[in-house]
């Protein structure tokens, strides 16, 4: 990994697989890395419970990472959950809606996240924002598209008179390649951390342990993770 000394990074960190790999990616590159999470009334709020555990275990994986890993910030965004009538904020079915988007799509979520992250990064002196959006192997969310992220970088820089750089290390790779990237950055210990401690399941189920980690096993997030893990394991043999 190529290290940079070009400022600090702020990672949008949910406690899930993708954001954890992004955190490892940032820790391998930047001299100071802080994290930000968002509580928006999500149905799978258990992800907020695993965040401090994952952060602590990440720091224990590498002495350099322990030195670089800085403060964590939790931002309450209850208003977003209050106005979002989706399967991630309500006890409703996870399916494809009439508009062709999954009912798990929370309109504006990533736009709001990036706006708040930019404001926080400005105060914390962090130039780089790192997030786990991906349009290669995802659920069809329009705010995960590369064009959206590029537009947000322009908007943040214009609106805050800053020179932020938005990094999306997973944008063009699928879930199998995400496992491979984790193995490349942190080896077997990081992969094991992903399996045992991160949370992806939309229903917040941590009662069932599968080879790929905890989850209901049937929601779209679980199916993507399970398929990616299976394909990565097959390619690794």
From TrEMBL:
Gene3D superfamilies: HUPs. Its EC number is 6.3.4.20. The gene is queC. It is an enzyme of class 6 (ligase). GO terms for molecular function: ATP binding; ligase activity, forming carbon-nitrogen bonds; zinc ion binding. Pathway: Purine metabolism; 7-cyano-7-deazaguanine biosynthesis. This is 7-cyano-7-deazaguanine synthase. Belongs to the QueC family.
């Amino acid at each position: 990994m190529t290290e940079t000394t070009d400022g600090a990074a702020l990672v949008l960190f949910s406690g899930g697989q993708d954001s954890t790999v992004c955190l490892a990616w940032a820790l391998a590159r930047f001299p100071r890395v802080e994290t930000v999470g968002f509580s928006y009334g999500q149905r799978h709020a258990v992800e907020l419970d695993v965040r401090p555990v994952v952060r602590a275990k990440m720091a224990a994986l590498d002495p350099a990472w322990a030195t670089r890993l800085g403060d964590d910030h939790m931002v309450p965004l209850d208003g977003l959950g209050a106005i979002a009538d989706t399967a991630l904020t309500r006890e409703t079915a996870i399916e494809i809606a009439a508009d062709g988007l999954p009912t798990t799509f929370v309109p504006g979520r990533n736009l709001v996240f990036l706006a708040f992250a930019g404001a926080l990064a400005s105060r914390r002196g962090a130039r780089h924002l790192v997030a786990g959006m991906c349009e290669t192997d995802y659920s069809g969310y329009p705010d995960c598209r590369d064009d959206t992220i590029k537009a947000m970088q322009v908007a943040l820089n214009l609106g805050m008179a800053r020179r932020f750089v938005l990094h999306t290390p997973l944008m063009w790779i699928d879930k199998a390649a995400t496992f491979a990237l984790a193995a490349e950055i942190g080896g077997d210990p990081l992969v094991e951390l992903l399996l045992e401690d991160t949370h992806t399941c939309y229903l917040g189920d941590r009662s069932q342990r599968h080879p790929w980690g905890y989850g209901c096993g049937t929601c779209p997030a679980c199916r993507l993770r399970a398929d990616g893990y299976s394909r990565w394991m097959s390619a690794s043999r």
